[in-house]
């Protein structure tokens, strides 16, 4: 490919990568690690200015643009732009997500649709857009940022959990379809972190409906990003962070009657933990 104004020529690069919702939080940290690994990274976000600022901050191997993952044609166009600028699309990370808490019956249709469209349909759109160029060359890696709420029900976050269950179900079934079709070179990995201290949770320390997000280990976005990017060297279909929490929550999931009976106690305990985090945040220790 000849270098034009729209390409990023670099003989040492590892190829193109795209991250959705990468203007801040976990996505920005993933983009930072992909740049450090040698990828040309397309930093995308629904907020185009935020994506452009993040890309400028990450240096010459990053470029930014607006992408709303709810639009499949927009995802396809972003995939093409990555191939044009970087020469290939090796990695696509579906990271964009939204969380609105509260019992589902208190949420209006617009709110419910927003979570399903961004978290579930957005992941489907991104995966399918990435698969087009990846299937042409027979290799690539799609990493979908899900959540523990994709593995087990999260009280107070029912629609969010529904959207994340949809995302992981789609990802694993599509990975199986690739193998059944004889395509061995394309990986799809799901990352299921516990609560992560990002802007998504910054305004939720006072929200008792968000207690599930504070029920386990509050992670740093840097740690989640390092583990997610580590999947490129050691692919796995599902990575829970931390691993022991994933195993523990899946045990509860095997006993739905017991889990339901204990849900009020589990959430009361999580709310106490959330209050402790709030005190630490107010003391500047979070
Ligand atoms: N923070 C947590 O506790 C936590 C835990 C588990 C999983 N996750 C998941 O991690 C991912 C990243 O979350 P975060 O904590 O960094 O949140 P964040 O709110 O800090 O960042 C999310 C980014 O997604 C972007 N976005 C929102 N709607 C979009 C759309 N329609 N198209 C494109 N971009 C859009 C936002 O502008 C924002 O930059 C999400 O999928 C989230 O569900 C977060």
Kindly describe this structure.
With 286 residues, this protein is an alpha/beta fold. The chain has one domain (16-201, 216-254): NAD(P)-binding Rossmann-like Domain (Rossmann fold, 3-Layer(aba) Sandwich), CATH 3.40.50.720. 50% of the residues lie in helices and 13% in strands. The chain contains nine helices and seven strands; from the N terminus they run E-H-E-H-E-H-E-H-E-H-E-H-H-E-H-H. The protein has helices at residues 25-37, 48-58, 72-86, 109-137, 158-180, 199-202, 221-230, 243-253, 256-282, and strands at residues 16-19, 40-45, 62-66, 91-94, 140-145, 186-193, 238-241. The chain has a seven-stranded parallel sheet, with helices on both faces. Strand 4 (91-94), helix 4 and strand 5 (140-145) form a beta-alpha-beta unit. The model is unreliable at 1-5 (pLDDT under 50). Nicotinamide-adenine-dinucleotide is lined by residues 20-21, 23-27, 45-47, 67-70, 95-99, 118, 122, 145, 147, 193, 195-196, 198-201, 213.
Describe the secondary structure blueprint for this structure.
Layout: E1 16-19, H1 25-37, E2 40-45, H2 48-58, E3 62-66, H3 72-86, E4 91-94, H4 109-137, E5 140-145, H5 158-180, E6 186-193, H6 199-202, H7 221-230, E7 238-241, H8 243-253, H9 256-282
Parallel strand pairs: 1-2, 1-4, 2-3, 4-5, 5-6, 6-7
Helix pairs in contact: 1-7, 3-4, 4-5
